[in-house]
Design a protein that fits this description.
Helix content is 37%, strand content 16%. The protein is an alpha/beta fold and 194 residues long. It has a single domain, classed as HUPs (Rossmann fold, 3-Layer(aba) Sandwich), CATH 3.40.50.620. Strands 3-2-1-4-5-6 form a 6-stranded parallel β-sheet, with helices on both faces. Strand 5, helix 6 and strand 6 form a beta-alpha-beta unit. Helix 2 runs antiparallel to helix 8 and helix 3 runs parallel beside helix 5. It is globular and about 45 Å long. The structure holds adenosine-5'-triphosphate (ATP) and nicotinate mononucleotide. Nicotinate mononucleotide binds next to strand 1 and helix 3.
Length: 194
């Protein structure tokens, strides 16, 4: 089976993430996308991140009802930084029958050359990238571009978790930025200053 693996901090998950997953699925003829919330995202400050159980629950709510979008908790159960190379190696070893594709947004594409064991990652998976307005991923080394496919004619959005958190803090609505059940969850648990 062709499977997209989509890692993120998802603090919180938003419509931009879901649009990326949907369009990547179509572009690469994926049967499923596995959303993998990061336990300790390697390039983010741990003390600024919402506890994992909330981020996980919001991802679960966001994909509910879509049988092709699944949640994988492996990085939340692992100690230490959530290095993608480890995740991919474990997935390849445990399910060798699948072909894995790594889904990322343009800001992450730009950052790929700085990832831990990136050359190993690119030996194991192809990358599907979605543009983000205002982000130009140029001057990438050949070892990245050779394994990277942008989603052609993609619908891009500048929605970010940062913008969602900022709106919440200002008392603005999150409707249409996150799925309704995620918005309800944020309000119920008073996340992000709501
Ligand atoms: N609007 C978007 N368009 C395309 N890709 C996106 C978008 N938002 C997030 N992504 C991608 O989703 C993955 C996970 O991102 P992450 O969970 O850090 O969300 P974020 O919105 O970038 O968060 P933050 O604003 O907190 O940095 C990354 O590959 C990121 O590039
Ligand atoms: O493996 C790495 O070196 C690495 C460095 C930065 C980010 N990542 C992964 O990329 C995904 C998106 O990260 P982030 O910080 O934008 O949420 C998430 O799954 C991280 O674990 C992975």
């Amino acid at each position: 089976m062709r499977v997209g693996i989509f890692g993120g901090t998802f603090d919180p998950i938003h419509m931009g993430h879901l649009l990326l997953a949907q369009q990547a699925m179509e572009t690469a003829s994926l049967e499923q996308v596995w959303f993998i919330p990061a336990g300790e995202p390697p390039h983010k400050q741990e003390n600024e991140i919402t506890p994992a159980q909330h981020r996980l629950q919001m991802v679960r709510l966001a994909v509910e009802g879509n049988p092709r979008f699944l949640v994988n908790e492996m990085e939340l159960k692992r100690e230490g930084p959530s290095y993608t190379v480890d995740t991919i190696q474990i997935l390849k070893e445990s399910t060798p029958e699948h072909d894995f594709f790594l889904l990322v947004g343009a800001d992450t594409v730009k950052d790929l050359p700085h990832w831990y064991k990136i050359k190993k990652i690119l030996q194991l998976v192809q990358v599907i990238g979605l543009g983000r307005p205002g982000v130009r991923a140029e001057g990438l080394p050949d070892f990245v571009t050779d394994r990277l496919q942008w989603i052609p004619g993609a619908i891009e959005t500048s929605i970010s978790s940062t913008a969602v958190r900022q709106r919440a803090k200002c008392g603005k609505s999150l409707r249409y930025l996150v799925p309704d059940p995620v918005y309800q969850y944020i309000k119920e648990h008073r996340l992000y200053g709501t």
